[in-house]
Design goal:
Layout: H1 2-30, E1 33-40, E2 42-58, E3 61-65, E4 70-75, E5 91-92, E6 97-101, H2 104-151, H3 159-206, E7 208-210, E8 215-220, E9 227-228, E10 236-241, E11 246-254, E12 266-271, E13 279-286, E14 291-293, E15 296-306, E16 317-334, H4 335-339, H5 352-363, E17 378-379, E18 385-386, E19 395-408, E20 414-424, E21 428-432, E22 441-449, E23 465-466
Antiparallel strand pairs: 1-22, 2-11, 2-16, 3-10, 4-6, 4-9, 5-8, 6-7, 8-10, 11-15, 12-13, 12-16, 13-15, 14-15, 16-21, 17-18, 19-20, 20-21, 22-23
Helix pairs in contact: 2-3
Length: about 475
């Protein structure tokens, strides 16, 4: 009887073991394996840049307008192409006639002003003659009055005659003063007439539009027969660029990046007209009149560039990159390695306590190992910490920010490596750590695979990939 109980117990234990083994094998077969995607740590050089777009502008542009109103009668002759009139791309010199406006009214104004000046000049001559006549009468009255004073009122000179001589003298003296004032008034009228004539002649001269500088006509904004009206605003007729061998790029830079921009900074840029060709320039100045669009503050940065080849044309769009920093002989890791974060079950046992503490700090709103110190950390859909230290424009952390990357040796667990984060070019980031070496494999993501470790999904179907701390 005792033997039967032992035999039954052994059979039950064996059946339980067999069932457990079967369940374990079934669970293992049904659960997909995790395959880590890795990339090697490299050593090389990195240039951190800030990317922005701008517009190519001539370095100095003169807007030629009309100071009078009237109908455009004709254009001037193109100096570089005899027989042609001024048009787009015409090479002009200072003083070159660009256009002529109907001057008939202004010529009449000149004639009227000239006639008025001649009349006022004649008035000056008349006033001068009247003054001389008054002075002569004054002299005669003065002599009579002096003789009357010597004789005095007596039997030889009646008292009424004495008073008459005195009155005549006083009247003659006053008449001289009136004629002197009339002469001054006549001279003032001449001055006014001369100013009116000068104004009329200037307006007549303005009917001939000339180039104030030597340059290239990049825009003609009027046609023959059109009437230009100059009232509150001066109508623009031509736009002339002084020197197209020197160009500027006006680039709007976000206020978050403007602190990394300074005069003399190197800039490289491309234009769509020449794919694959890179042009060079440098920062000239940063304009202080910021603009705000949808609560985004931007500053205009002027970038100077040489255009001796003539390839760059005004108002092309330039895709520019400001070179913020350049480092050589540094360790580089893909940015995805700084964004990726594992599940707790994937962390090596010796690092799990540190990983849990890091996750708790992140959940408490403080910056953990997965995020950069002082930076803008992020979190995945599962609440795990994710480092977000890079900016799309390129950012130089200066080695003061901290992050976490994960390395794998056996393909089953990942180990934590703390690093200091430096500059990034948007693809790779400079890192510093005593525990990180060149060619070491860092995890940048993971995917699900079958039992044999190979990808079981259709190559043309979406893959089950997890990166940046996000499991799909």
């Amino acid at each position: 009887m005792k033997f039967r109980w032992k035999t039954l117990l052994i059979i039950v234990v064996l059946l339980g073991a067999a069932g457990g083994a079967g369940a374990w094998h079934w669970h293992k077969a049904s659960k997909p394996l995790v395959v880590f995607r890795v990339a090697a740590v490299t050593r090389g050089e990195l240039t951190a840049t800030i990317s922005a777009t701008g517009t190519i502008e001539p370095e100095e542009v003169v807007d030629v307008g009309a100071q009078v109103q009237g109908q455009v009668l004709s254009f001037g002759q193109d100096p570089s192409h005899p027989g042609r009139v001024i048009d787009y791309c015409s090479q002009v010199k200072e003083g070159t006639v660009l256009a002529r406006i109907d001057d008939s009214l202004y010529a009449a104004d000149v004639q009227t002003a000239q006639a008025q000046l001649d009349q006022d000049k004649a008035g000056v001559e008349l006033a001068q003659a009247n003054l001389q006549l008054a002075k002569a009468k004054l002299y005669d009255a003065q002599r009579d009055w002096e003789r009357a004073q010597k004789i005095g009122p007596s039997d030889a000179l009646a008292e009424t005659d004495y008073d008459a001589y005195q009155a005549t003298y006083e009247t003659a003296k006053a008449t001289v003063g009136v004629n002197a004032a009339a002469l001054d008034q006549a001279k003032t009228l001449v001055t006014a007439a001369q100013a009116a004539l000068l104004k009329a002649e200037k307006n007549l001269g303005y009917c001939t539009i000339t180039s104030p500088v030597t340059g290239v006509v990049i825009d003609r904004r009027v046609n023959i027969g059109e009437t230009v009206v100059s009232s509150l605003n001066t109508p623009s007729l031509f736009l002339i660029a002084k020197d197209l061998t020197r160009m500027q790029i006006w680039i709007a830079v976000n206020e978050a990046d403007i602190g990394s921009i300074h005069p003399g900074q190197a800039v490289i840029f491309t234009v769509d007209a020449y794919p694959g060709r890179t042009f060079k320039g440098e920062v000239g100045k940063i304009r202080l009149n910021a603009t705000m669009t949808q609560n985004v503050v931007t500053y205009t940065v002027e970038v100077n560039t040489d255009n001796s080849s003539g390839k760059l044309l005004p108002y092309q769009t330039a895709n520019a990159q400001f070179q913020v920093s350049h480092e050589t002989d540094v360790l580089l890791v893909p940015n995805a390695a700084l964004r990726w974060s594992p599940q707790l079950s994937e962390v090596a046992p010796e690092d799990r306590d540190a990983f849990i503490k890091m996750s708790q700090r992140k959940a408490g709103g403080r910056n953990g190992g997965g995020g950069a110190a002082g930076g803008s950390g992020g979190s995945s859909d599962s609440g795990k910490p994710v480092a977000t230290t890079e900016r799309s424009s390129g950012y130089s952390g200066g080695g003061h920010e901290r992050g976490t990357i994960w390395v794998t040796d056996d393909g089953i667990f990942v180990k934590m490596v703390k690093v200091r984060i430096g500059a990034t070019d948007g693809t790779n980031t400079v890192v510093t750590s005593d525990k990180l070496q060149e060619d070491q494999q860092v995890v940048i993501g993971e995917m699900q695979a079958g039992e044999n470790g190979s990808d079981t999904t259709n190559p043309f179907a979406p893959q089950m990939f997890r990166g940046g701390g996000m499991r799909r």
